[in-house]
């Protein structure tokens, strides 16, 4: 699973790089496509994502424990899910012109026309996102975790092939600029059509492993008495949290579409200032870069520790919950604190590498990334804290946090829209950063009420030591960037994409060495907890036995004190499976790409309550013995 996720992330960056090569980072066409391609994921999460999370997914997991594997029950849920997604997709696709008008701002008629065409091609992805989520949960519930991790790789390969053909047939944007005036149906198919085809194939690939389960799934109707009403009532707060978050994000993205429209007007008027106006594509690529450490390290670690938090919470063990939270915050900080300062130091070469070959675009991307990067630890810390609320089955508190963040973002975006166009994207990046910090403040406040304290002194000491080590590493990186011309417009780094890539590789090595040396100097022992699973696997494959022996599980009190300065370490992290949860905080969506990592099944108790005791129940509400409240 971990390898599949890493490969998918790597291919995702290749896909983004090719998109920028094909369309340009600061081009109107790129901004228009990003807006349209973001919509399917956003609309799915807004309208159906919360329903799948809080209603259908838990039911699938429970039903899979039945003697027959939940065949009849799951068939009914899948039938309902497919019908809902078909109706939703058809309605939204037919309404594409109005959807684009509602979600963009300042578009000229030609730009809005192309945006609508992109939307017609991209919006059918909604159905396949929903089907993918359902099939993933069926597989997860039956212990088949790999297919959902590897299927997105094929999606990226298809999209990469389309972008490669686009560059081969129509040329790269730098040598053959693509604009609204010379855009054709062939261009649209290679970009939007292949993007949707990748999502279709990604979903189709999950059909084979589902069929191998031999569950006897088939379309079945009749949903009275199966418990969906009770589950929906229990998930009402989750649904509300999802709705608030997605509506807020749609509004922020509407404001983010303004600069692209203004840049198009400046370019048509011959005003050279158009080259200094970043659009939402810049924000999207910067978001991908700063989300990388979170998606690989923090999300995986939180997924694993959620099991421990759930067990401790169900046992009424506040110290156990606190230990798991403290361990998670400190362990992931080894990666996220370094990533924040490393991205800040390497912003120039990273910006140039993803610029499509134009230095002015690279500068805008580097500036946006610098603003976002420093909030990486806060975003991941809030994600970990949110696991505690879900482990305690507290969906109301995340809604409160999301509501405060929504107020911040709506008010902030409303003010930002009146700024000069060249500053809007930078201001939105700043809004993300402020939101990530605020989310940690709010989560800490509510968690202290529930847990008494959060082992704050210990966590703070660890973060400070890691901060010292990461700062030293960043200084090494900043000096190296300067030596390679990163602060000189005519320097080596700004000469080409591949010069920037070479600089990244050259600089990253001494930065990593400096970081690990300084971690040892400052006695940061959490690094062993982060690396132990990797070292253990490598050692096992090399025949070295347990390359990183794990200590026995400490008591809660000892575990809470574990970490820096040689204290006992926590037990090693092992593979686990967890469920969709709607998270607070501001996490920008990535280029409309469906993220399977967010659709893992939440652990359930060994004997789930209210498990359907027979294949199906058809009867009046309230008479189902398995779901008496329905």
Query: Number of folding domains?
Result: 2
Uncertain parts: 541-630
Structural class: mainly alpha
Radius of gyration: 25 Å
- Gross morphology: globular
Number of helices: 23
Helix and strand string, N-terminal first? HHHHHHHHHHHHHHHHHHHHHHH
**Largest pleated sheet:** none
Number of strands: 0
- Report the helical percentage: 55-70%
> Oligomer, anyone?
single chain
Q: For the residues shown, what is the average pLDDT? A: 81
| Separation, N- and C-terminal Cα atoms | 37 Å
Strand content: under 5%
InterPro entries: Lipid_II_flippase_MurJ/MviN, MurJ
Membrane topology: Multi-pass membrane protein
Region (Disordered): 546-573, 587-630
Main location: membrane
């Amino acid at each position: 699973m971990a390898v599949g996720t890493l490969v998918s992330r790597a291919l995702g960056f290749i896909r983004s790089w090719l998109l920028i090569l094909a369309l340009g980072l600061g081009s109107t066409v790129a901004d228009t496509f990003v807006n349209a391609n973001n919509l399917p994921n956003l609309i799915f999460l807004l309208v159906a994502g919360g329903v799948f999370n809080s209603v259908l997914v838990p039911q699938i997991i429970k039903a899979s424990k039945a003697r027959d594997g939940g065949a009849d029950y799951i068939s009914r849920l899948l039938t309902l899910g497919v019908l809902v997604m078909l109706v939703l997709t058809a309605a939204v696709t037919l309404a594409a012109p109005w959807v684009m008008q509602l979600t963009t701002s300042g578009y000229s008629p030609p730009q809005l026309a192309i945006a609508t065409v992109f939307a017609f091609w991209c919006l059918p992805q909604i159905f396949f996102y929903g089907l993918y989520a359902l099939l993933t949960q069926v597989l997860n519930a039956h212990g088949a975790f790999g297919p959902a991790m590897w299927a997105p790789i094929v999606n990226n390969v298809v999209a990469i092939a389309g972008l490669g053909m686009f560059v081969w047939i129509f040329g790269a944007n730098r040598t053959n600029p693509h604009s609204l005036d010379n855009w054709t149906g062939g261009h649209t198919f290679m970009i939007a059509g292949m993007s949707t085809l990748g999502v279709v194939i990604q979903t189709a690939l999950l059909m084979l492993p589902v069929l191998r389960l031999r569950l006897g799934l088939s379309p079945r109707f009749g949903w009275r008495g199966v418990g969906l009403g009770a589950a929906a009532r229990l998930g009402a707060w989750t649904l509300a949290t999802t709705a608030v978050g997605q509506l807020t994000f749609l509004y922020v993205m509407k404001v983010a579409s303004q600069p692209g429209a203004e840049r198009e007007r400046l370019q048509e008027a011959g005003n050279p200032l158009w080259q200094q106006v970043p659009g939402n594509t810049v924000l999207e690529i910067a978001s991908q870069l700063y989300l990388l450490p979170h998606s690989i390290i923090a999300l995986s670690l939180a997924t694993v520790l959620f099991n421990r938090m759930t067990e401790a919470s169900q046992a009424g063990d506040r110290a156990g919950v606190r230990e798991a939270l403290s361990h998670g915050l400190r362990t992931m900080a080894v990666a996220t604190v370094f990533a924040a300062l490393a991205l800040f130091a390497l912003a120039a070469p990273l910006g140039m590498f993803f610029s499509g070959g134009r230095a002015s675009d690279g500068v805008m991307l580097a500036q946006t990334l610098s603003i976002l990067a420093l909030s990486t630890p806060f975003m991941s810390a809030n994600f970990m804290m949110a696991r505690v609320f879900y482990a305690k089955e507290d969906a109301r508190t995340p809604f409160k946090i999301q509501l405060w963040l929504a107020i911040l973002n709506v008010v902030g975006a409303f003010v930002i829209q009146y700024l000069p166009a060249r500053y809007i994207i930078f201001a939105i990046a700043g809004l993300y950063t402020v939101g990530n910090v605020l989310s940690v403040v709010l989560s800490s406040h509510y968690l202290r009420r529930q847990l008494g304290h959060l082992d704050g002194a210990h966590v703070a000491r660890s973060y400070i030591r890691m901060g010292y080590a990461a700062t030293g590493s960043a200084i090494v990186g900043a000096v190296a960037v300067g030596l390679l011309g990163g602060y000189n417009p005519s320097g080596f780094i700004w000469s080409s994409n591949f010069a920037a890539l070479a600089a990244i590789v050259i600089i990253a090595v001494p930065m990593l060495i400096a970081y690990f040396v300084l971690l040892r100097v400052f006695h940061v022992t959490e690094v062993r907890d982060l690396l132990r699973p990797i070292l253990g696997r490598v050692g096992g494959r090399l025949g070295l036995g347990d390359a990183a022996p794990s200590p026995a599980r400490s008591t809660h009190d000892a575990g809470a004190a574990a970490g820096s300065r040689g204290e006992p370490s926590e037990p090693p992290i092992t593979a686990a499976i967890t469920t969709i949860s709607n998270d607070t905080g501001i996490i920008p969506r990535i280029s409309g790409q469906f993220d399977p990592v967010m659709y893992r099944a939440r652990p359930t108790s060994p004997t789930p309550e209210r498990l359907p005791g027979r294949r199906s129940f058809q009867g009046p509400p309230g008479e189902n013995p398995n779901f008496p409240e329905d």
